[in-house]
Amino acid sequence: MSHFTEADLKKIYDANDDDGNGIFDLAETKKAYAQLGEHAKKVDNFEAEFNKHAKDGHITFNEFKHFAVLH
Ligand SMILES: [Ca+2]
Description:
Blueprint: H1 6-15, H2 26-34, H3 46-53, H4 61-64
Calcium ion binds next to loops.
InterPro entries: EF-hand-dom_pair (IPR011992), EF_hand_dom (IPR002048)
GO molecular function: calcium ion binding
Protein name: EF-hand domain-containing protein
């Protein structure tokens, strides 16, 4: 596995924040998650995982870290 840092994750996060409001709705989270490839954390139920972290239907960058494996 190649090195994958918080800075790498932030690049993916920013590139998928389509409306530029700094937070992710479900669609943005799904799209960014799909780009994580081998760095994606396995989740059984993506929407349930999203809803666990989401407040008002959105997650922040810190919460998006739950969907990735940093190393
Ligand atoms: Ca957004």
